[in-house]
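Memo to structure team: turn this sequence into structure tokens by end of day. - J.P.
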Amino acid sequence: MALRKYAEALNLYAAVVKQFPQGGGEYGRAAADAGDFDLAVRVWGKFLGYQPESAGLLMRLADEYQSIGLHAKACDLLVSAASLEPRNLELRLKLASFLARTGGIDQARAAVGQCLELDPLHEQARFLAAHLDRREGRFADAERQLRSLLAPPAGDLAVRYSCHAELAWLLDRMERFDEAMDVLAEGKRLARLAFHQEAERKAFYERHEMEVRQAKALPNDILDTWAGVFPARARTAPVPLAFLSGSARSGTTLLERILDAHPAVAACDESPAFKTVQAGIDVGAPVIPAPRLNLLRQRYVKNLMMTLGPSAAGAVLLDKNPSRTVWLPAFLRVFPELRVLIALRDPRDIMISLFFQDHVMTNYLTLAQLAEHYCRVMGVWLAVREWKGLAWMETRYEDTVADLQKEGSRVTQFLGLSWHENQTRFYEKNREKPVMSTNYTDVTQPVYTRSVGRWRAYEKHLAPVLPALEPYCKMFGYA
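Reply from structure team:
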């Protein structure tokens, strides 16, 4: 597995679990890492058959299913585990946290209530209750609970950071802007002291910078070069496929939900399907054999369809993955016919939205680090959009919220479809579909404009990074 000799590794795992069935969990994880989600699911299902009444195993497998984007299956396993051990607080908290992020208010509230019955003082459960108060618009109740959790003595550090982020969000909505920034900055300071992510972040950014340099170094006629060694006649039959990306917090989730409401579109929210393919592509290789590329094409589509379900058959497939713009060269090497849709938003609003986000990849970052990352991601896009023969479109968040049908129709036409009346009420469908980004509340209600120009309330805090963002503001029309 470490050498990426996946076929050999999986054959060995298959032999091992015949003699030692308890190794099925590791075998399934290996299959998932190799990109064979179908095999992983079959192995995990058989593995579960040996211990169907084990709450611990159900909880472990829920994590595995969630890691490959099968969120409904993960939720079912957690519910089953909780029924087996109803007084297992760790398990109940895991289910409550999952539902608070992906489910409706009532379902999440019931799960949180069960946690509080087991331990009324548990910090994570109290935080989730405050989070749900905020989502229901009960801001005073949420603020009171969050401040209580932040009062001395210091408790769980991860919960304390989430409380800082949640409280900052509340204060921003109440237009207490300076207080919001102070609360958030303190939370990030504590996070940087407590969680020691420097080495992990350094490795991530070194790898990311290498991908950025590699993408920018490719010539503008690279698609012609790749088509010469992987012509249309050598490819497996294409499927209608589009990739939606851009910077994180640029409105990709909103756009994905609007498009997904069309009956002829099946949109996937941050699926891991392409990650397993991207790892096997060297965009700098002069030639990649057609059978290898076709295997990756088939594997990717199969994995994506597994996440989307049988209703996606025959639909236009939309893979939404913000910040994966640096992977575009690898994606286009495998799918030269890919349609690329890039979401734009005022870079200054993106900075504030990212800074306020409670997400493991951004919790510790300063505005300067966020600006640097944005410039790398969008710098790749500015290079790739110059490639000859690329099918691409940019769409602005501000245009979507100003006139949903006008901009939505333009983007829908880019996918080869006409506007459908269901798209006007996209938020109704979203209440039934998990949202894996952190803006569940935002995309389960009609569009609003309050986030446009949000950065102006924080202009003095943004001042040090405005020079770095200025070129992108000009190039994308936000000068």
